[in-house]
Amino acid sequence: MKIKVGLLTAVFLLGNLSIATAAPIYTFPVAGCTVKYGKYHHDYPATDIIAKKGCAFVSPVAGIIDEVAAVDKWSGKTNLGADRGGLSISIIGDDGVRYYGSHLSKIETNVIPGLKVATGDKLGEIGASGSAKGTAPHLHFGISYPTQKGIWWVKRGVGLESKGKTSPWKYLQAWQAGSDLKPKVVTPATIPAEPKK
């Protein structure tokens, strides 16, 4: 009887141990550095996370690398929307949501479209590429629904939840605190037209 009770106790403890040590689904996208960020972003729902140049941009979720802009093509003369992000990466999470980080100073050499990544994998480093030239280093972070490649105005960040106007702020707050809060993304019936600015 004592052996059965001891065995059941061991099985119970091991079962609880694996639950307690399960990997998080989400993590804050900047690792190992002090950051500042606000609730709002100019013009559209996204978040700029201010951090020192070189801080790690990590995958906020497990998924597949969707698009990579490994060359900074932005020019202040043309200011093309598709080039404003500079060095950037988008990930389609295993949760079906797209995550986007831009203005990077570096992209890890192995980060290419189709690469499977885990939550917390280093993808690149914070910088001020693209239209962020001359500003404080930061990660422009957007969440959106997946679209065809090249739809830059969606991947940079779209409204979540409430009528498409909610920024990623509450998700970032939850992930920074260690909570697995899944983004709720509103997918429209048709993709909005490319903005003029």
Entry keywords:
197 residues, alpha+beta, Glucose Permease (Domain IIA), 3 helices, 9 strands
Descriptive notes:
- This protein is an alpha+beta fold.
- It has one domain (24-176): Glucose Permease (Domain IIA), CATH 2.70.70.
- It has 3 helices and 9 strands, in the order αβββββββββαα.
- Strand 5 and strand 6 (98-107) form a beta hairpin.
Q: What is the number of beta strands? A: 9
Number of helices: 3
Which parts are unreliable, with pLDDT below 50 for 5 consecutive residues or more?
4-19
Major sheet attributes: 9 strands, antiparallel
CATH fold-level topology: Glucose Permease (Domain IIA)
Mean pLDDT, as a whole number? Answer: 88
Q: What is the name of the CATH architecture?
A: Distorted Sandwich
Shape: globular
Q: Given the helix and strand composition, which structural class is it? A: alpha+beta
Separation of the first and last Cα atoms: 75 Å
Query: How large a portion of the residues is in β-strands, by DSSP E?
Result: 15-25%
CATH homology group: Glucose Permease (Domain IIA)
**Proportion of residues in helical segments:** 10-25%
> What's the CATH first level?
Mainly Beta
